[in-house]
Amino acid sequence: MAAPHSPHLEWDDYPCDGLLLENINYYLRRAFDNLDVERLFPGKNIKRRLIRPDSVVERKISLQMDNGTIRCLRAYRAQHNNDCGIFKGGIRWDPLVTRDEVVALSSGMTWKCALARIPFGGAKGGVEVDPTNLSFSEKERLAKAYMRVFNDILGPDKDVPAPDMGTDTQVMAWMFKRYTELCADRTVPGIVTGKPIELFGSYGRTEATGFGLILCVNNFFPIKNKTVIVQGFGNVGMHAALKAVRMKAKVIGVIDPGLFGGGVFNKAGIDIEDMYALRVEHGTEALKEKYQANSEADSLLETACDILLPCARENVINIHNAPRIKTACIGEGANGPTTPGAYVQLINRGVAFVPDVLANAGGVIVSYFEWLQNLHEEYWEEEEILARLEQKLSQAAKRLKTYTADKNVDIRTAAYMMAIERIANARQYLGAQ
Fold first, then answer.
1. Is residue 401 annotated as a catalytic residue, yes or no?
2. Which of 50, 206, 216, 273 is the most buried (most CB within 10 A)?
3. If you average pLDDT over residues 165-194, what whole number do you get?
4. pTM as predicted
């Protein structure tokens, strides 16, 4: 399936590089304008009602450190929209977490769920903290404290968290435990997703976002025999690289300054299966010892390849480095990795995009499957889960390709337009009060 044609975009249509919330809201306004929502929903104030989050809660967590001192941490939960289902979104622990970032990510979840047609709305949580500086016991206290301070707005039929940057299955297990205690020891497995398999988790959840990214890209830009560079070798990037080589692509570059001190490059192809096994079986130190950086991160990001997969932070591809990006296709594994200014440059150069609002939806789709299993007290086999994931993403990709061509807009605008239509129609049925 070829990548959708994108019409030429004018520079005046886009800002340069803003913060993630500014970028998402700009894409939304462009989608609103192309939809002509005032004509479709006269007098309903749809733009304002759908851009603004329903709720943003900031609370203080007093975390007791191992040495007995107390740290005061800012913690957030943004609930953007639940017209199509309960709130859903991850919790990130990161020193750069801000209120606006959490709001932006909750908005992205709203449109992601609508585009994938799963019955969730968007939410996101965060704590302004560097988890690498916390001990195991400090992380446990933080996880349980987060669940305690936000307990009133979370629940399996209200708002269901999941792992994100800086958190993992262990953190979800602690949160599940604390919620169970708060519910008078009633077991409520559906309170979080991304749990360990042994604690009501789902097969396929860990690899879902990375695998889903490759399945998505393949629907628009077949990856067999293509060269791939992966930026970020965390959970998403590692599993994306693994899935890519298993689908007969050749990964020639892996960029992760925090892990390798730069990037690992091999024109003949990197042994991703070996990298994966080393990390899973022996940890990051063994991986770093064998695979040492032989390239600067920035220069490897700009190295020629067929497919570039940014799988780490937002704004990695921007107006400064976009002129030097040499790839035919960008699949966005991270949230907001390409700024609007860079996006317009690359689209006008003919670079195909698989936008984040669809490309990294695999995680929330399998989270939905986990939530369903918890509700029905079932365990599905991994083969069934991955087959359902592939079907969901293939259907969404097909709808998006058709819609993009019908509306004659770029693929990112089309994705937002489709999601907005779905949620705006739901809101119309629900009424204003």
1. no
2. 216
3. 93
4. 0.93
